[in-house]
Amino acid sequence: MRSLEQEMGAWKVAEGEVDDDGRSKRTGTMWTASAHIITAIVGSGVLSLAWGIAQMGWIAGVATLFIFSTITLYTSSLLADCYRAPISGNRNYTYMDTVKTFLGGSSYTACGLVQYALLSGLAIGYTITASISMVAISKSNCFHKEGHGAPCKFTNNPYMIAIGITEIFLSQIPNFHKLSWLSIVAAIMSFSYAGIGMGLSFAKVVSGKGEKTTLTGVEIGLDLTAVEKTWRIFQAMGDMALACAYSAILIEVQDTLRSSPPENKVMKKANVVATCAATTLYMMCGCFGYAAQGNHAPGNLLTGFGFYEPFWLIDLANIFIVVHLIGAYQVVAQPVFNLVESWAGARWSKSKFINEEYPLSIGKNNLAINLNKFRLIWRSAFVVVATLISMAFPFFNEILALLGAISYWPLTVYFPLEMHISRNKIKRGTTKWCCLQLLNLVCFLVGLAMAVSSIRGMSKAFHTFKPFTF
């Protein structure tokens, strides 16, 4: 997380208001940590799980989703134990710090490149996805007002600009410690729009209008070759694996927790709560969606019910998606913001431009906030660049799928397992070591298949992209 020595230079922290490392007292709980995790992982991608199960069928689809959730929960538990150094008990404030403590410099560099490329990419992807939902709202209202035959075509770019302006303001929230309220709101939104999708699906199934489903998923035939089905299965596996992964922010979230009870114990409970809640939501959304839409389930469950009726309910779901993604943007961007600010604070420790905090009072109630010139300029520049990339590369979600595929294995599996081996001094060749390496290998192969599938999807999208189209 961001080095708070800068803030402590500006604020005189009273006795008893600091933790054992001299930083401002952490106030996070299991519930705030769970909210951060849910906000980060339960994205609008939950609406694609019905499509994923359709590609693999009832047995393989449900089993794959459960397996990936179990793997994530296991490796996240191992990672939570690495928050403090084994001998000194010193805190590791970021995932990179943790890797450096247990695995050394080269792994530290590799971890940083992968982690921050993914987090920056997610911010761009969330901008695109939120704008798609805003366009869906405009289309729905247009069809309702003008009739189903109306053209109702809209471009995403004005909505991306509006999202960017909103994120510039929200990005001034100093750190994860001040972000809990936004994560809680975003987490509620994620359950709300997924609940609407499940409700519509359940209603369709109960009414007897559910489409055909099969144990093996979409059937090979005139419209689908064996090769195309294989690619789709790889893509579906990737969607499910990435839907469960959140290791890239785990240590940063853990650093918000109170010192007592021990952070690793609280974080493990938060892992269980968030993973179980997310997995239950995924299972219900994916299974109900597949039962309703069948083997022709769309990539976005909500579009399977059309833009027409009940148009107001579809609009409400898309509003929830937008609010959730605006909050999720901040959750994934905070580690990036704080990495640069920590480096700049250490590099120019005496610079007032970088380190000085300016308290401001807003409104009749004198709401107190602290502004920092460097934070204002750097974070605003990040949001502007992310917005411009979103507008220039509207197919960036395909690029994001590749970033996710590349980062899944090292961040979610490899580093947590290797740090666990180092921390517990597990000897090479023992039964436990072999089992851990087998899990490592299987997840590496899955990640490789996901990456190849993502490259194929990116290649297709590149042929149709139109940058900066208004």
TrEMBL record:
Top-level division of the source organism's lineage: Eukaryota
Q: Primary place of residence?
A: membrane
Q: Which InterPro entries match?
A: AA_transpt_TM
Q: Residue limits of the Amino acid transporter transmembrane domain? A: 26-458
The molecule here is called Amino acid transporter transmembrane domain-containing protein
Q: Where in the cell is it found?
A: Membrane
| GO biological process per UniProt | amino acid transport
Give a Gene Ontology cellular component term annotated to this protein: membrane
Record-annotated membrane-spanning stretches: 30-51, 58-80, 113-137, 179-203, 272-291, 311-332, 376-393, 399-417, 438-458
Keyword list, A-Z: Amino-acid transport, Membrane, Transmembrane, Transmembrane helix, Transport
